[in-house]
């Protein structure tokens, strides 16, 4: 029962090792804890931790979407946002409000350079590896995009080779081979369109 009290005699104390064995990044547990005030009893459930995973991943995605630039820091906006963060910590170390201040930065109208500087500053206290994990996410997305582009380029090259082979087959009056090539392409989701100017194609639903 994930909602019951943990018992030392039953070996049910939560450890970082246990979280890692269950596939959780310990940083997410930190996020889970920071969302509650330290004076309040924190009721742990894996459902709550799963919610923290979703929250953290969305936060990282928002930060990863920020554009780095050489723009000057907007000191006026930064002072206001730093004030909110400091006010949260001065309020009996209210980390929940401090996390809210992070979202205030992301929602603010200031430039990306200012937001990134503030997030780096705030994370010196929160220790959520915000910029580090955002950079990793950007790198992963770039790698996926490049992989997808490579796959798309390979598909286009293959389609064009098949169209050329079909054209040669038709020129040699080997219509059975031409029909086979058309059928193979259709099986891959590629519809050929014969026109007076030549053969084009459409990838996807033929309808």
Textual characterization of the structure:
The chain is mostly helical. Helix content is 64%, strand content 6%. Helix 2 (26-34) packs across helix 3 (46-64), helix 4 (75-90) packs parallel to helix 6 (112-126) and helix 7 (130-171) packs antiparallel against helix 8. It has a two-stranded antiparallel sheet with strand order 1-2. The radius of gyration is 28 Å and the shape is elongated. A hairpin with a 2-residue loop joins strand 1 and strand 2 (198-203). The longest helix has 42 residues, at 130-171. The two termini are 52 Å apart.
Produce the secondary structure layout.
Elements lengths: L15 H6 L4 H9 L11 H19 L10 H16 L4 H13 L4 H15 L3 H42 L3 H13 L2 E6 L2 E6 L4
Antiparallel strand pairs: 1-2
Features:
two-stranded antiparallel ribbon; 207 residues; 6% strand; elongated; mainly alpha; disordered N terminus; 2 strands
Quaternary structure: single chain
Between the first and last Cα atoms, what is the distance in angstroms? 52 Å
Q: Give the DSSP E fraction (strand runs of 2 or more residues).
A: 5-15%
What's the total helix number? Answer: 8
Q: Secondary-structure element order, as H and E?
A: HHHHHHHHEE
Helix content: 55-70%
What is the overall shape? elongated
Report on the biggest sheet: 2 strands, antiparallel
Identify low-pLDDT runs. Answer: 1-10
With strands numbered from the N-terminus, the spatial order across the biggest sheet is 1-2
The helix-and-strand class reads: mainly alpha
Radius of gyration equals 28 Å
Global mean pLDDT: 88
Strand segment tally:
2
């Amino acid at each position: 029962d994930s909602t019951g009290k943990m018992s030392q005699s039953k070996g049910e104390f939560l450890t970082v090792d246990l979280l890692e064995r269950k596939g959780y990044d310990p940083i997410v547990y930190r996020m889970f804890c920071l969302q509650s005030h330290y004076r309040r009893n924190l009721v742990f459930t894996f459902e709550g931790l799963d919610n923290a995973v979703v929250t953290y991943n969305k936060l990282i995605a928002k930060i990863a979407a920020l554009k780095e630039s050489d723009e000057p820091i907007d000191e006026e906006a930064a002072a206001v946002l730093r004030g909110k963060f400091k006010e949260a910590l001065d309020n009996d170390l209210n980390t929940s409000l401090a996390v809210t201040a992070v979202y205030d930065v992301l929602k603010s109208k200031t430039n990306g350079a200012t937001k990134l500087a503030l997030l780096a500053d705030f994370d010196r206290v929160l220790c959520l590896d915000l910029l580090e994990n955002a950079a990793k996410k950007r790198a992963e997305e770039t790698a996926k995009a490049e992989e997808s582009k490579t796959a798309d380029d390979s598909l286009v090259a293959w389609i064009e080779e098949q169209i050329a082979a079909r054209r040669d087959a038709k020129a040699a009056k080997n219509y059975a081979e031409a029909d086979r090539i058309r059928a193979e392409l259709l099986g891959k989701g590629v519809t050929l369109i014969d026109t007076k100017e030549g053969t084009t194609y459409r990838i996807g639903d033929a309808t």
